[in-house]
Structures are given as C-alpha cells and as structure tokens.
Amino acid sequence: MSLDTVDKLVVFLAKRDGIDKLVKTFQYVAKLACWHVEATRPDAAERFKKWEVASGLSRKAFRTGRSLTGFNALRRNPGATPVIRFLAVLANSGEMVYFFFDHFLWLSRIGTLDPKIAKKMSFISAFGESFGYVFFIIIDCIFIRQRLRSLKRLRTNYEPKEEVSGKVSEIQGDIVMRLMGISANVADLIIALAEIQPNPFCNHTVTLGISGLVSAWAGWYRNWPS
Asked: 102: closest CA among 121, 128, 130, 117?
C-alpha cells in the first residue's frame, strides 16, 4: 500500500461517513458469513451474528444527531430550481425522520427504553428512510439528465479542445457520483422495504447482504478523497 493511499485512508476514516461505511461493510460481510456457515458451523455462525449485531448497534450510536444534517443540506443549496428545492425538502424530511426515530430504535435495542417499542420505531424509521430515498433518487435522475444534455451541447460547440475536455471530465465525474448515489439509495431502499413490508425477496439474507455491501461500497467511492 502506497503512502498516498494510506494518507487518503486516514482522511477517509476521519470523516463520520467514512467510519460508517467501514462498519457497514463489517456488518453485512458478517451477515453473509453467518448465513454461509449457519448449517455447517453453528459456533462460527453465532460469532458472525454477534459481529453483525454489534456493528449495527455501533452505527446507530455513531449516527446520534444525524437527524439535524438535513437542515444543513437544504441551507447549502440556495441556487437550486424550485422543483429541486421542493424535492430536496421531501427527501431530507424523510431522512430526518429516519435518523430521529433510529435513535429510539437503538435505545430500545440496548435496553435503555422498553424493548417492546423497537418494532414500531423500526417501522417508522424505515418508512421515513424509504420516503426520503425515493426523492433522492428522483433528484439524482434529474441532475443526470441535465448533465447528459450539457455533454451533448459541449460536444457540438466549437470551443477550444482544452476547455471542452476539462468541462467534459467534470460533468462525467458528477454523473458517476450521482450514479453511485442512486446505487446506494436503491440498495438502502431494499433494506428499508424489508422492515416495512417483509417479503421473501427483500428479507432474504443474500439480498440484504448484497444490498448492504452495494450501499457501503458506493459510499466508499463517494467519500474517498480525490
């Protein structure tokens, strides 16, 4: 591993989102490993299950106060069109509901609050999460469509090649980041749907495990220092 990579890893893990994506990777790798050895090695499966649960609970604790970040996200986007601002309000509202009730879910699962409310808190949190992710996906799709139009215009203009190349690279980079965002949000939406409306597909361990890893690794890509 080069010194440059080590430096980037240090910067990545200094971010709250960086730590979250690392622990999320642990959580869903442990989930898949538990499923893989459940029938043949029950003792190992139990250890993997404990690792998964511990990772999930630690992520919830680390996200304390995250419900307030939606306000900051709206405040930092003053130049957006009215449609985008409206969609952003809906998306961030859903996310704030998700993180707010996730605090109560965490407290109920560690025994601070009545464990009986865990199921209800999980449903409300997952519902807010799903609601927000739908609008985040729509916003990213709108921006990708705009960026593709911009690329088309740039390639038909007679600007200096150096200027066009720089703008094209910038737009392509933004498109990739938004595709990563869509991948993460779709994966997390599947996980949330497993809580809202349990079904054989969403609740299958492989579906949940792969979705969790897709979300985690898309987050790694988006948060990795350039």
From this structure: 121
The predicted-structure confidence for 209-218, as pLDDT tens digits, reads as follows 999 999 999 9
Number of H helices, E strands in the chain: 8, 0
In which element (H, E) is residue 219 found?
helix 205-223
Domain boundaries, position 74 = 3-223
Phi, psi at residue 200, to the nearest 5°? -60, -35
Token pair, residue 58, equals 């630690």
Question: Could you tell me if residue 15 is left (phi over 0), alpha (psi between -120 and 50 degrees) or otherwise beta?
Answer: beta
Q: Of 184, 170, 96, nearest to 140 (Cα)? A: 184
CA–CA separation, 129 and 42 (whole Å) = 33
pLDDT digits (tens, 9 = 90+) for 81-133: 889 989 999 999 999 999 999 999 999 999 999 999 999 999 999 999 999 99
Contact 125, 131 (CB under 8 A): no
Question: Which tokens hold the place of 78?
Answer: 């003053």
Query: What is d(CA 186, CA 180) in angstroms, rounded to the nearest whole number?
Result: 10
Count structural domains, the chain. 1
- C-alpha 1/C-alpha 187 separation (Å) is 30
